[in-house]
């Protein structure tokens, strides 16, 4: 008999003819060995952490990105926390890092230290995010190294402003040239426009024409009306830079443009007295604008319309054209604008960078600043009013600027730097002769002419600080004068007096032409 599956004591009993009993002790069977492998233990988290590295970087768009690199085995769904410098949690989540690969975690950043922590991996990665860049307004400015405003603009922040104006008309009389001048002074703790000399029929009239005394307010760029009763100028007293007008007897100041965010500067009164032209970025980029001073509530009118900047307007003697500087062909050139048709014609020959054009008083020639023949310094050049016959008239080794035609168009005055010296120079067209008017003992700048004469006004630091001086430009063969001994000192104040204006009737030396975007 066979039985199976039992263990322990078994007893067999047989009954019937024969009776028999049998007992046997059965033991449990020996277990059969198997080939099942023993599982390999998972490494503890600290072993993974030793494999993972990372770094963080902040972006200008206000984000911080952490990059984790894993040369070891895959790390699956590990929780992370991102905190700022104050320890405040700014983001949480989970990250998987493939074996031999990398993963990124991007969150919105805050200025200061930002830290990514993965507790299970014992990883902590920090990076420092800087303060976001200042959001620059449409038009903005700063005081430059010489104390005068420098202007900038940010097209991205510009939104068109209204061209409407509230304006009471001005009646402008016949043209004449006054026996007085206008100049810039800092004697009030801000840039003001003062009159130098008395008005014949108004003795004792206030000499401060702009009258906006405040350390945060400045007045620059005077342009005289043909009848000498008014000046137009640029001022920031309204909160941003606008065009203002003031009576030359100091009795009235009036706002003429009404920007809230943009900048309008560099006014030029038309010879017929009807218009004031100026440059502004109130519609996005620098353009030439004009308004009619003789009409009630006359709007501002944009004369140029181009994506490139258009600046430095100057009227023709008949008030029918404006020449200006533009980047519309990729390089600064001189263009002519017909006031009636608004047609624009390029006058430059394309051989250089041409800037700051100025008609002669007869209107048959144009003087301008130019960079030519591969040079980066600026020379003075003249050409016919149609752009032909360009002639360089200043030293090619100098840096020349601040052009001023004499009232009779026979002379051109300018300032020029040669090495460390800055002096006043005069060029005589008939003889093609140049005279250095001032010597090297002082810095002399910003020439202008006294009406119907060959007498120059200019700025000099001969007394130790900037004051207004005068001297005769002729004879053309005369040696330079010692300004302190031979020049006529017209102002004497411990604060700066500079950049006079008489003839031409527009002053440009006070404008710093940094009109390309500072940061965009």
From TrEMBL:
Q: Which InterPro entries match?
A: 6-blade_b-propeller_TolB-like (IPR011042), WD40 (IPR011659)
- What are the start and end residues of every segment in region (Disordered)? 478-520
The superkingdom of the source organism is Bacteria
- UniProt biased composition (Basic and acidic residues): 482-500, 509-520
One short Pfam name that applies is: PD40
Q: What protein family does this chain belong to?
A: Belongs to the TolB family.
Q: Which PANTHER family match?
A: PROTEIN TOLB, PROTEIN TOLB HOMOLOG
Name assigned to this protein = BIG2 domain-containing protein
Query: Which organism does this sequence originate in?
Result: Candidatus Thermofonsia Clade 1 bacterium
